[in-house]
Design a protein that fits this description.
The chain has 499 residues and is α/β, with parallel strands linked by helices. It contains 18 helices and 15 strands. It has helices at 9-21, 24-34, 42-51, 57-67, 73-86, 89-99, 104-117, 120-128, 134-150, 179-189, 234-251, 270-279, 330-340, 357-365, 378-391, 421-424, 429-443, 457-466; strands spanning 168-173, 195-198, 201-206, 221-227, 258-263, 286-287, 294-299, 304-309, 347-350, 370-375, 396-399, 410-415, 444-454, 469-478, 483-491. It is elongated, with a radius of gyration of 30 Å. 42% of the residues are buried.
Amino acid sequence: MSLTGSSEETTAEAAERALGRAGLAGAEAARRALAEPTPGSRARLARVLSRVAVEHAEALRAPLLGLLADPEARVQRAAISGLGKIGGPEVEAALLGAFAKAELPEQRALVEALGKLGGRPSRTFLLGLKLADPELERRRARALVMLGRSVDRVDVDVDVESPVPHPVRVIFRCRSGVAPTLLEEVREHCHPSAAELSPTEVSLEWTGSLSRLLEVRTALDVSLEVQLDNDGPLDARVVAALRKSVPLLVALSSSMPRFRLAWLGAGHQRSATFRVADALRGTELINDPKGAPWEARVDERGQRLLLVARPNLDARFGYRGRDVPAASHPTLAAALARIGGVQPDDVVWDPFVGSGLELCERGLLGPFQRLIGTDLSEQALGAAEENLRRAGFEAQLVRADARSFDAGEVTLILTNPPMGRRVARDGELESLVEAFLGNVARCLSPRGRMVWLSPLPRLSAQRLEAHGLSVERRGAVDLGGFDAELQVARFSAQNPRTR
């Protein structure tokens, strides 16, 4: 305990951290030492209590409240910090009562703590303060922003059934390389006027409700675009764009709209976020990082603000009860299934079934005769079985090697196989691809097709051609940090398959 009072700063800091890591036991030891006549560094001991206040609020509330009247200012500030983490009516009343008697450094700490409490009395008190100190005013402004997020908080949802109040440009975002498939789906499901903006975006001018947009299965998310002004500081342009968005967000929210501000390619931008939130105080908009139904993404490069609807798009994939490592992203599985197309008599085989998302997505697209999935992992087969059941489908799931399993005659092979380190570290990737594609040629119907993501594009294209399959579509697809190649192959008329 005496080490907290060491003249060696590094030793004293290490002792404080050690007591904090000890949790309630360390805090109790620090509390007892604070009662001693000469306990060493009392401020460090008080900070130990503050460190663990959240985890042990009931035990530490009374000791920290007692330290508000401590003669040492640094002890008071440590107690204020800890109490701000604990919160509650008793704490709020004590902090408000301490303000009038406190010196300026302690008043600054009190204002910061009151901003964390989230109580109506704190907001009323802070709004009524008349301050001369610029730093205290800065902290009050920040505290009021934080209180605005939490006081009178109600659950707010995006209203997906009401039409947008005016025509708006909608942006659908996807994995790089999937845009042509996303474009096809948006044109088919929403409106034929949709256009491809880039390898990751499709746009559409829209006047209806959001519900139809949120059903697009190959989109990562859907946003409403608001243009930023060309001149002025970025945070001021963001404020102007958000003010311009008020009618739109109010019309599409069940209550006062809340949003989470995000800065694309620019990190957290905490100070800019607080400036924006402070400028919006008193308007219908509240910046709320916790559970807001909208995300306002600032895209400075594109001179736009993207209002992303966050009734989570995972609702489209409610069948996902279980997952396995390195399984397909569901929007990617949906894209592969869409590319594969629908034939009512399809016998569909996923040789590396994983959690079964490709089979689920193919089943949701339309009629089929049979679904088959193979994998060497019992965990994967269990996940696939549960997900398929939740999606409303039955499948033949077999623990088997994709290089040798006899699937019979299948009309569609749909798969995202093991990639990269999972097999490359054993030097097996090339041999796996070669043997697997040999089995594909044996199992695929003469009128069948194969849609897959190849980890070795050049090798797989050569082997498919050697087996008589024509590779009719190729393109890189982002798998989240690395690319694979989408390949669509069929037996060519000049070189049909012979079984």
